[in-house]
Amino acid sequence: MFKTVTYYLQKNISIFLLISFLFLALKSSSQSDSISINNVFIQKNVSTKALNYLDKKYTSATNNIQSQTEKLLEKIQEKENVIRDKIFLIDSSKAVLLFSTSQEMYQHFANELKQTSGKISGNAIKEYIPNIDSIQTMLQFFDNVNFPFSNVQLDKITQLKDQAEALQGKLQIANEVQDYISEREQLLKSQLAAFDLGKNLLGYNKEIYYYQEKLQGYVEILNDKKKLEEKIFSTIRELPAFKKFFAENSLFSQLFNMPGSGSELSFVNTGGLQSRYQVASILAQRLGVAMTSNPEQYFQQQIQSNGAQPQLSELKEKLNSLQGSNSDMTMPDFKPDGQKSKTFLKRIEYGFSFQTTGTAYFLPVTSDIAFHVGYKFSDKAVAGIGAGYKLGLGDGLNHIKFSNQGMSIRSYADIKTKWNFWISGGFEYNYFNAFNNLEELKNPDIWQKSALLGITKKYKIGGKKEGKIQLLYDFLAAKQVPRLTALKFRLGYNL
């Protein structure tokens, strides 16, 4: 009896051990397959092309920020030198007192800009950019996990890591420069009133304003996550190991001094890292209370609490800077030119126009379709070039016949007046003859000139699109053969 029981126990234990071994083997195999799949996806998505794109993007932003900051420092120094020389003639001791240290500070900022910036802690950073934080944390994660990257990929990752840190450093210096110059402006305003030199500070405000506008444009570009960037994060951010690493090492976590439990921060599928509920959860943990299902209700309750109010105010200041608050933006004491702070490509306008001409002599009804590209020198001045095609429509509805009736090469300039009316002028070369192929257009003697001047009314069509109505007079119409009407009515559209 005892032997029989022992036999069955031994048999069952063997079966149990066999099943356990198989289960562990399958689990290990599944985990191995999962890791292998993740490695393949990561290696594929973190491609050399994607890394090169990010490096180019960050290098361009770094160079632009450094260049604009250096220009600002030079211009402000020139303005201060003029003011200092004027005050020195009146009160030399006052001049020394006001300007003895400023030149040293400007030189200090200039030297910092030329150096490679090191890593900045979350508590010291003044401008938080989610995309940069994502990239930097991801690159740090790669240093701690052995992914099967190629040597080329590893070199690019190291290069990108250095570039991201340099960019963050330049942004930090840029914010310090803004703060210092703003403080200098306020100081000099209060001191120069006695010398009747306040008008010399008008340029301060203008320089700072346009500088901040340009920086804001760079930040918007950095926060604009393209497909290649999103592709990189598509796999990385879903890894539990990365979520934990992000909670412990990101600038976002440092801003709130979060412990590295790995559960405090989580990714959301948006351009930024912080969600409304996410931030509310962090604040709840910092305040040491339970989070309710309704964040708004939670905050209302905590605001009523005297104990939570000081901490809430402190965190609100951090949150404002975290989300890119513009509360520190300089308010202009002049009418800003919206084009001055834009890049070259942002100042380009393009569109098309229509013009219909009735039948004349032996010419059929024609419809001119022209495309143009212009450059906005300011909010009140734009100039550009274009090309037009004359489509023949026949002699009426009963005799519709499409034909090539000519081409045109155009130039134009618009100057804004009041009520969104513009004075428009331009010079054109027109080919008024029918043609069958482009070779016929090469004879320059057949092309005729037009000198146009008139009025344009521009109006908004939702968003950034713009319509326009033009009434132009051709001062060379009398010299054209065949002679056409000198008055031209055109409808246009700017994209």
Topology order in helix (H) and strand (E) letters: HHHHHHHHHHHHHEEEEEEEE
Q: Mean pLDDT, as a whole number?
A: 76
C-alpha Rg (nearest Å): 34 Å
Give the termini separation. 95 Å
Number of helices: 13
**Class by SSE composition:** alpha+beta
Strand content: 15-25%
In total, the number of strands is 8
Question: What general form does the structure show?
Answer: flat
How many distinct domains?
3
* Poorly predicted sequence stretches spanning 5 or more consecutive residues: 25-37, 260-275, 321-327
Helix content: 40-55%
Order of strands across the widest beta sheet?
1-2-3-4-5-6-7-8
Please give the largest β-sheet: 8 strands, antiparallel, barrel
Question: Can you characterise this structure?
Answer:
With 495 residues, the chain is α+β, with helices and mostly antiparallel strands. The chain has 3 domains: 1-35; 46-322, no CATH class; 345-494, Porin (Beta Barrel), CATH 2.40.160.20. The chain has 13 helices and 8 strands. It has helices at residues 2-45, 48-90, 92-99, 102-114, 130-144, 151-192, 202-223, 227-236, 240-249, 251-255, 276-287, 295-303, 309-322; strands at residues 348-357, 365-378, 381-394, 400-416, 421-431, 448-460, 466-474, 487-494. The radius of gyration is 34 Å and the shape is flat. The relative contact order is 0.07. Mean pLDDT is 76; it is low at 25-37, 260-275 and 321-327.
